[in-house]
Structures are given as C-alpha cells and as structure tokens.
Design a protein that fits this description.
152 residues; Ferritin; 5 helices; mainly alpha; elongated; single chain
Length: 152
Amino acid sequence: MHLANYLGYLHQSESDLAEAFRKVGEAHAQEVDVYHITHTLAKQCETHAEKLKPFADRYGEEKPEEPEQLYHELFDQTRSGSLGLLRDMQDLYLMASACDISWTMIGQAAQGLRDRELLEVVNSCENETANQMKWIRTRMKEAAPQTLIVAS
C-alpha cells in the first residue's frame, strides 16, 4: 500500500508550509495583514499535520524527500520589497498547491478504504487549504498592479 508514502509526503508538506508562512510573515512584517494572516495559516498547517498522525500510525508513514527539496528550493531565503512579497506569495501558492493535491489523493484512498475518519479529516483540511490558496491568490492580485506597473 502506497498510502504511507502520501501520508508522509503530506505530513512533511504541511509542516514545511507552516514554516514557509512564518518566514514570509516575518520577512514582510511591515505588511500587517500578511504578518498576522500568515501566522494564523501556519498554525492551521501545523494542525493539519497533527491530524494526520493517527492515520500514519494506522497505515504507516514514509518520508519522501520531495517536500523538503521543494521547501529548500523555494524558501532558502525570502525576498524583500513589494516584488519580493509577490514572489514569496507565489512560492507559498506552489507549496499550498502541493498540499491541496495531496489531500485530494489521500481523500480518494480514504474512499477506497471506506475510512470515514480519514475522509472527515481530509474534507476539513482540504477546505482550509483551498481557503489558504484563495487568500494567497487574492493578496497577489491586490499587490500585482502596483508592484508590476508602478516604477520603484
């Protein structure tokens, strides 16, 4: 059963996304909304990772390297300024997308296994991840015109 691989992938991806949200929030603390919301979303990701633990105990958990590689590739360091914020938000979106599709795959497995508990966790966390992505996209749309058109 390869579910253990995806559980490990998602567990690490959620933990890395939490750290990435915090890094972006700290790097762009002058943007008060970014600072506060990224810290709230980081806690949400940590909760997602915690909710996976009982299922990792039940089905096993492998530790694939891809989530760590993605995190270090995107968040070795954050950028500064308005263009930096836009690029950091785009990187957050990529990481959140990896979590989102992993929730989908695990949800499909939960249906196949008829594991109602796992399916409930998937549905809850998948919805929160979708909301995280909506916030990131909205924040990028808000910043893009000023950042990309107006001369610095």
